Amino acid sequence: MKGILIGIFAITAVLFAVSCGSDGPETTDKDMSVSDTTQPDIDYFGQGTSPEMVDIPAGDFQMGCNEAVDYQCYENESPYHAITLGAYKIGKYEVTVGEYQQCVTNGACNNSGDHLHYYTNTDSGYCNLGAEGKGNHPMNCVTWYGAKAYCEWIGGRLPTEAEWEKAARGTDGRKYPWGNEPAVSCDYAVMDDANVGGKGCGTGGTMPVGSKPNGVSPYGAYDMIGNVWEWVNDWYSSDYYASSPTNDPSGPEIGDGRVLRGGSWRNGYDYYLFRASCRNYDGAVSSFNNYGFRCAK
Fold first, then answer.
1. Contact status, residue 189 vs residue 227, Cβ threshold 8 Å
2. pTM to 2 decimals?
3. pLDDT tens for residues 216-252?
4. E strands, 8-146, in order
5. What is the H or E stretch that residue 161 is in?
6. If we measure between CA atoms, which residue out of 296, 289, 236 comes closest to residue 261?
7. Which residues pair with 189 in a beta bridge?
8. Where are the domains of the chain?
9. Cα–Cα distance measured from residue 244 to residue 205, given in angstroms and rounded to the nearest whole number
């Protein structure tokens, strides 16, 4: 089947799965049937300081892989289809360590219970929370639950998969946030680029948010490609596009895990992971050093 390639590698003694390529996000245990009702109530709604956001106007856009400009299409990105979204806001940048630390200090982003694990800060030195000088780097090593808790704390929510994609590529069906060419490189995204020293564009990790202005999206959102994979709200289903509603789709009612978008600092040779239409997923309880998020309202 052309669509979903699952690569199995040994990285820090765990297995990982990738939807549109190998050497991407990792997984330990997919939450195939975990209900959101198992989450604790968040009592801190709207108390956080909201990160800067950009406006995405209401209207139509084409979602999925545009074969007219992209030869790397995968089956789970098809069919290429029209979607209508209402107006919304989305984070100009990925949520930073400094911003997330406020939520941890407040108590809204905690680690109460094994299943509801929100974040990790001891992942072989690559987790940014608690690391010196990483306050303006993206929050990483965060689970879907931890991302959701933060967004709710600031009075927002995780974006839907459709909202994320429109914010990343605009309405003209482009392959990347910056257009159909040139191909992704460290001139445009924080990635594993052998031409400039490898992972993280030679840094060996994430970079401060907004470090790649050449890669900004049509609406002014930074790092939609690279730096960290970004959690969105939707459950993942490989064939969801075939039955997706045309107005404000919010994903299937259940799925194989939660959707991740955008590629990360660890991905490189598999450049197809950096396309705006690429879909990935993992279990909501997974927290790895290339997982992060941004919020919407």
1. yes
2. 0.87
3. 999 999 999 999 999 999 999 999 999 999 999 999 9
4. 53-56, 59-63, 81-85, 88-91
5. helix 161-169
6. 236
7. none
8. 37-297
9. 36
